Amino acid sequence: MTEGRHRLLVGSANPGKLREYREILSGLDVAIVGPSELDPVPSAPAEDAASFAENATSKARAYALASGLQTVADDSGLEVFALHGAPGVTSVKTRLPRSATRGCSRSSKECRTARRGSCA
Question: Which residues are catalytic?
Answer without folding.
Answer: 75
